[in-house]
């Protein structure tokens, strides 16, 4: 019997009470994901993770055995592995040989393992870690992270994990920074009788254990660290296949709660047409050799690779599709295939992912729907902090405005920036640059690309390369400044009007703009950031009539201030 289970069984009943939300408390180290790295962390290449989990819902506990294989890029005397200290380690072995207890410490969530012999550069090491305990329970997942223990309407266990913000170390020993992805992962998830455990990658098989529990075995290649997920419940499944426009056949599955068959079938009917949109707009589904998987969860949602979490309660929307399913699926391209190597470039996940929804509205219904959906995003842009700071950051330093982060501007401001960029450089250049950033090549086909890491600087270089022009001014204004460019219109003598861009710091901003004069629209080059047009008496001038360009709008600022005041009075 595992040491943890034996200890739990020996405790009085009162000690087995489920932990409340937000407990047990986390250290600062465990809450931090990403940020500046130590030499020992960058010196590890993560080759493989074999993860065994035993889910104990009656105690809200978790046992685990992680067998991790690394290759040293530089000489190493110790391993630094992230693991929440609420999951105490009971045993560690190196290359099959047990370590003495004195060889490891984990006071704050960074497990430090002293190797019995120094590891030379290029040599491989396998560490087996046995651990378990009471994992941290999320307060309001997925906006904070941890375990989500819930019950189905008929009282059965319904459990899920989220880890994007605090990181993978909440429930398995990992390298908790974006470039810490393992090349491949095997998952073995043991759950009580009557429950299922859909997870990442391909299902290798289900083992029936003597005590009627089942062990679900999955294999995934190069999953994003926070995209590995446990999902446990009395699920029913809808499955099918999608014949890709690239010639391959992609398995599709949706795991849902009993009693929701009609709603589940309606959502599943969105899978194939949504996949077709993404393949036509971006390129091949990155994990077609595994599956397109979605699972209903007791939290809102998350882009868990090939097993996206869905908790939108089958809500209906005027655009005619489920935005949450669509948004999480977009992350298979922007987040899982293309992963930001630094959280400072987080907008590559959320900005592109958010822009895909109005593009899908356009794909389905045309320009009117596209603009309606973009308008809803425009009203949520805060402009309090720059989207990009050009330094290594933690996830929370980006997502939390209280820490100086852009927060939801990585969604909406970045989406609008992409909208303006598409108009500025044209569709051909825009979508070519997007393919190069996502796949690392312009001719992606199933089998000729792998998941990759990207950055803001790389995307800028790609745009400049594709267009053969320098658009650094564009990215500097929108990503590295909090305040939006403002277009100032000044009447001049002789029935003329000057249009001039006002940009923080006096930055160069030769952004063209469309104007409509008495119903006739033309595009002004604004080569030096300004232009003068004739405006005869009585002429009706409308600037940017199709809302092509993201710029300061005092009316939206007043609306946001008023809305904030209304909320503060409640």
Defining key terms:
29% strand; Immunoglobulin-like; 570 residues; single chain; alpha+beta; 4 domains
Structure, described:
The protein has 570 residues and is α+β, with helices and mostly antiparallel strands. The chain contains 14 helices and 27 strands. The strands form 7 sheets. It has an 8-stranded mixed beta sheet. β9 (146-151) and β10 (157-162) form a beta hairpin. The radius of gyration is 26 Å and the shape is globular. Mean pLDDT is 95; it is low at 1-15.
CATH fold label of the largest domain: Immunoglobulin-like
Total individual domains? 4
CATH class of the largest domain: Mainly Beta
Shape call: globular
- The percent of residues in helical segments reads 10-25%
What is the strand tally?
27
Tell me the distance between the termini. Answer: 53 Å
Largest sheet: 8 strands, mixed
Q: How are the strands ordered across the major sheet?
A: 5-4-8-2-1-11-13-12
Helix and strand topology:
Elements: H1 3-10, H2 28-31, H3 39-42, E1 44-56, E2 61-72, E3 76-82, E4 89-94, E5 97-98, E6 104-105, E7 110-119, E8 124-133, E9 146-151, E10 157-162, E11 184-191, E12 202-208, E13 214-221, E14 231-232, E15 236-243, E16 249-256, H4 261-268, H5 271-281, E17 292-296, E18 301-302, E19 308-310, H6 323-330, E20 338-340, H7 347-365, H8 367-378, H9 395-399, H10 412-425, H11 427-439, E21 452-454, H12 456-467, H13 472-479, E22 486-492, E23 496-502, E24 513-517, E25 520-524, E26 530-534, E27 541-543, H14 554-569
Parallel strand pairs: 1-11, 16-17, 17-19, 20-21
Antiparallel strand pairs: 1-2, 2-8, 3-7, 4-5, 4-8, 6-7, 9-10, 10-14, 11-13, 12-13, 15-16, 18-19, 22-23, 23-26, 24-25, 24-27
Helix pairs in contact: 6-7, 7-8, 7-10, 10-11, 11-12
């Amino acid at each position: 019997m595992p040491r943890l289970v034996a200890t739990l069984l020996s405790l009085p009943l009162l000690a087995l009470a489920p932990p409340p939300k937000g407990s047990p408390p986390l250290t600062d180290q465990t809450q931090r994901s990403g940020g500046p790295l130590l030499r020992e962390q960058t010196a590890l290449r993560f080759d493989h993770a074999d993860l065994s989990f035993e889910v104990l819902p009656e105690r809200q506990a978790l046992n685990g055995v992680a067998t991790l294989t690394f290759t040293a890029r530089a000489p190493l005397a110790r391993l630094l592995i992230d693991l929440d200290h609420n999951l105490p380690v009971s045993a560690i072995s190196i290359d099959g040989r047990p370590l003495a207890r004195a060889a490891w410490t984990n006071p704050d969530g960074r497990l430090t393992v002293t190797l019995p012999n120094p590891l030379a550069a290029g040599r491989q090491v396998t560490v087996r870690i046995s651990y378990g305990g009471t994992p941290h329970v999320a307060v309001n997942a997925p906006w904070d992270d941890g375990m989500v223990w819930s019950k189905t309407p008929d009282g059965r266990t319904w459990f899920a994990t989220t880890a994007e913000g605090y990181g993978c170390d909440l429930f398995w020993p990992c390298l908790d920074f974006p470039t810490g992805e393992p090349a491949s992962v095997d998952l073995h998830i043991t759950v009580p009788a009557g429950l299922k455990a859909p997870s990442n990658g391909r299902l290798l098989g289900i083992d029936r254990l003597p005590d009627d529990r089942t062990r679900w075995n999955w294999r995934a290649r190069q999953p994003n660290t926070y995209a590995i997920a446990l999902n446990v419940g009395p699920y029913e499944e809808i499955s099918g296949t999608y014949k890709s426009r690239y010639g391959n056949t992609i398995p599709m599955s949706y795991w849902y709660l009993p009693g929701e068959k009609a709603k589940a079938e309606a959502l599943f009917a969105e899978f194939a047409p949504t996949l077709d949109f993404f393949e036509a707009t971006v390129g091949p589904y990155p994990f077609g050799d595994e599956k397109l998987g979605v699972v209903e969860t007791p939290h809102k949602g998350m882009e868990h690779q090939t097993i996206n979490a869905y908790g939108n309660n089958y809500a209906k929307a005027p655009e005619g599709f489920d935005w949450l399913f669509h948004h999480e699926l977009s992350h298979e391209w922007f987040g899982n295939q293309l992963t930001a190597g630094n959280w400072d470039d987080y907008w590559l996940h959320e900005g592109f992912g958010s822009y895909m929804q109005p593009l899908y509205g356009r794909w389905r219904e045309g320009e009117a729907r596209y603009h309606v959906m973009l308008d809803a995003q425009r009203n949520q842009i805060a402009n309090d902090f720059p989207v990009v700071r050009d330094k290594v950051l933690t996830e929370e330093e980006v997502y939390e405005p209280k820490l100086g982060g852009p927060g939801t501007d990585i969604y909406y401001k970045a989406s609008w920036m992409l909208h303006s960029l598409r108009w500025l450089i044209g569709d051909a250049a825009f979508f070519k640059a997007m393919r190069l950033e996502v796949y690392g090549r312009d001719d992606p086909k199933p089998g000729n690309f792998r998941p990759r890491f990207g950055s803001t600087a790389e995307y800028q270089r790609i745009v400049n390369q594709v267009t053969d022009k320098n658009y650094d001014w564009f990215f500097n204004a929108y990503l590295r400044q909090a305040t939006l460019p403002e277009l100032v219109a000044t009447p001049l003598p002789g029935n003329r009007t000057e249009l001039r861009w006002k940009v923080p710091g006096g930055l160069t901003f030769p952004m063209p703009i469309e104007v409509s004069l008495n119903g006739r629209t033309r595009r002004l080059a604004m080569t030096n950031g300004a232009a003068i047009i004739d405006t005869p008496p009585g002429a009706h001038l409308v600037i940017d009539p199709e809302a092509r360009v993201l710029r300061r709008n005092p009316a939206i600022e007043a609306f946001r201030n008023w809305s904030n005041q209304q909320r503060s009075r409640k």
